[in-house]
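In the previous chapter we treated chains in isolation. Here, by contrast, the input contains two separate entities that must be folded as one system, with a combined length of 671 residues.
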Amino acid sequence: MTRFVARTFVAAVLLGVTGIAAAQDSAQAVLDRVVENLRGVSQWATLQLTVERPQSTTEYVMEIVTDGDKRSLARVTAPPRDAGQAFLSVDTNLLIYNPRLGRSLRLPPSGRSNAFLGSDLSYDDLAGEEYRDQYDASVADRSATAITLDLTPHPEAPTPYGKLEFRVQPGTYAPLSLTFFDQRGNAVKRMSFAEFKQVDGRTVPERFEVVDLLKDGYRTVASWTQVDYHTPVPDRCFTEAALERGCR
Amino acid sequence: MTPAVTPAPPRPRRAHDLASLTRLAWRNLWRQRRRTLLLVVVVAYATLAIVFFWGFTDGFLDSVMNAQGRLVAAPVLISSEVYHHDPDPSNGLSGLAALEALALADPQVGAVAPRIDFGALLRSPYTTEGVMARGIDPAREGRVSDLPSRVSQGRMLQGPGEIVLGKGLAERLDVRLGERLAVDVSALAGPQALGLRLVGLIDAGTPVIDDSTALIDLADARTLTGVAGATGLALDVPLGQEAAAAQAINERLPDGIRAYAVGDLLGALQRGLAAERIQMIPMGLLFSLFAAVAVTTTVVVSVLERIREFGVIVSLGLDQASLAWLVTFESVFATALGWLVGLAAGYGLLWIFSATNALGALMIHTYGDIVQGLALTDQIYASVRLEYALFASVTIAFAALFSALAPARRVRRLNPAEAMRAQ
């Protein structure tokens, strides 16, 4: 009996210590996991991008190739008006190829944070790297269906937002939604994620929906189709030659 | 039988005739002092008005130039010649300490402040705006620029991590005091970004300032651009001495580096103001024309008053043509006297207003709201240039012309018998 009590006591202490440690780093750990899921893995895919505006809806089809880390190449295949436009992202550099000009242009760093193709999405929205580098995470709420992380920017972080709110699926750490708040506490943009797929231990969303909360009728939906997670992506796909001519 | 009287043939006009007429005209001026005084006063007033008009106009335009210069650029800016033609941070200055010492060695230079001007993209949660941002040393910028004194809300920069924006730009970005902006730059250091907190708003009352000004600390600018030194050294020199100071400093600067006066820095504005001045010329000419008409009217009245006198003179043997010359000479002498008196009074007045800032205070208090869009300071000094005397002499030319056309012509057609009976 004495031995049982002692074992129970030791187990309780160990569990308690482990629990405290888990609670201390859990927010950052959750953020790391969710960012990994958000960035996905190496893949070839087709992306359907639907840009909705109050008076119009535009549908783009893009071929996407990424190494799942810091390199990606996207080429517009439809509509014909925009076909041939391509975007190459390597680290923080972003290049765009305009088929009408027949040349590539290096975009300023703002190009990563600006919406591409007139949508509500930007490269930084998809990369997720800045969420880890520029924000302090804290768990605001934890329930059976979602962990809510509050991301507060570092004092000199190059972000105009006052707070980000990440809702994450417990267990898989799949991103459910990400809401951007201005510095007055108003939600200005919300990204929702759906159609998750398990790839190499990650839960990767294959559908993004971005809603501009300040402008009625401004919405962008991105759906990944024909995703190939298994064919290796060669380095030649992330060169200016591939930007201009493709790499398939 | 009365012998037939044959008219004497007209005497040929000789130089000494004109000299006699000149002396006679001069004496005539002082025979009727009140009339002469009236004519002199009219012309002097017109001359004074013309001289003051141009002195004030040029002084006002110079004030606009200098005010804009101290807001947009600097009284004098030292930069590389390459940067002047291609304002890219990669063409900046190095060896700032030596250049500062060299600039300060000039007695006209009161202060030096380093700057980094660069293109940047400002991001708020709602929108983005591209601007030409300026990195400054907050402790020194106030000596070379009026911008720090135009902070209407919040305060001026005190150090890194802060940004001051023009009011219009802040409104477009929808950013408020205390909020953070993301600043993106791509220069020598590659793509760089910083989050800077808005601490002050500039309200200069002029769109070129309020809609595009972004000031950040020099250290932040160096981080963002990768420029180790500066793109320029702004110098404080006395008002009106910008070009002379720049020229003096240029004699000591090394090859490839030049001092540019505000006029060189704001070429477009200078051309605009020069165009404004050209547009004022018709108004100035109109002024001269009215003054000449006033003078001519006075001469005409004087001729009408002296019809009997002229009749006697002609009957005594002076021909009408000579009499017309006499009247013209009188007009020219009177207007010349008035011109000289007017010049003395006009230049005296300009000298006073060029030495004191009476016009600035007057303009700001009277027309503050109207001139606000011109970004004027309360420093408006009259300009003093010799060419104003030439402009005023147009009045003399007009007066002489009109006198020859109207009063002298009337005298030329004078019938002595009728003239002597005139009341």
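The longest strand of chain B covers residues 111-123. Chain B touches chain A at residues 121, 123-126, 128, 161, 175-176, 179-186, 190-196 (CB under 8 Å). Compare these points with the single-chain example from earlier in the chapter.
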